[in-house]
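We modelled the chain as a single entity of 461 amino acids. Its sequence is:
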Amino acid sequence: MTRDRGPVTAGRPPDGGAAGGGGPRPRGDRAAYLGEVCRLLWPEPARVTGYRTGWGAPVTAARPAPHALLTPPASPAGAAPPAAPVARLPAEPSAASEFVVLPGLQRPRLLVPAGRSAAAAALRRYGEPGSWRALLGTRALSLIMASGLGRVTARDRLRVLAPAGAPTIEAYLQAELGLEIRVSMHIGAARANRKPVLQLLTPAGDTVGFAKIGISPLTRDLLRAERDALTRLGRSGLAGLAVPRVLHYGSWRDLTVMVLSPLPVWQRRTRLAPGRLALAMREVAGVAGISHEPLAASGYWATLGSRLAAADDTGDRRAVADALGRIGGRAGAVVLPFGAWHGDWTPWNMASTRGGLLVWDWERFTVGVPVGFDALHHWLQAQVIPGRHDPRRAAAGCVERAGPLLAPLGAGPGQARLTALLYVADLATRHLVDRQAEAGSVLGAPGQWLVPALAAGTAGL
């Protein structure tokens, strides 16, 4: 995603983090995706062209067309790739927008406005990198852009030429918000729920909001769900955390557009005090009240079965169904507490600041799930960041460590283990229903990591 920051203000996992899917991504995935997004956000008669600044450099990832694509045409087998054309750009017109493409057009990850102030601000707000080294690198690049040296160090550009009155995403947002804006966009890794998320900046570099763009049935449904969740949370009087406000929700050219207020991530960060996260999760769990029911008689149990039945009939789906059959047969009479959960509460979807705990990305908010799902999800997703731990062992560890993970929420060992098994089954069901593996998401195939943990865990019930 967004990376799917306010909603994306303070961070995304490294590629292939939280929502992940199965199998390696094609090398040109991000470049191809950027081309698709450009055609949606800047449709004809606008023209989008990639080029490289300095020393008469050729375009590295563009080809001339009525609406220029951002990847060169494929070459026949055995043929040398065609030479990239030189960009013949007119003198800069008033209707032109220019973006810096980082790190470059071949593997784009971030588009920032070419203006010094807006570019520097976009980089400063660009998430929580995965390490101090990455954080320092991002801050250094922000200073370089502010100094004007970015034209030398970051040479790949994207230019949007649009006639006056042409439909563009900036024109739509400016009309709806009544503000002159610049946009910055993160180019996320492959996921079924990947969507454009735009940081909205003033020319001076002030962040005024974040726009999420629904481009598929799934992403439109998720935006609708997040709008409803934030409306509900805004009325609930949350004391332990802050959430974004919905500034705008509407449709533009068959796309769903939602603008969220920025959260104050610029406030000084603080270390989470012991128990603070658990208290915040407990507060969210109680937004709609807490009920206690036998698992097999609960609405959650019926809903989970219906969701799983809607997935394609695959070996993974049958394995999850078998595990749920064992859970229902051996633990269906166990009484569990049911409440709400964020649905994707990860270290990169929150920030602990002097002003309080900030939490965004509420697309998966759901009422009526076993209390404790958020704590389990927060732990597991941090473990499966690429290069940190083996996902299969991490999923098994989520079940094995359920007792201490859920003890702060008042769960006993047996209840905690059952809750963890349900969480793993729920996450596997999500990946199957969303077809994350087909979308190329790094951990989208539940059979590679979630199903083994579920099978082993339910065998011991």
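As a brief sanity check on the tokenised model: Residues 27 and 107 are 8 Å apart (CA to CA). DSSP finds 14 helices and 14 strands in the chain.
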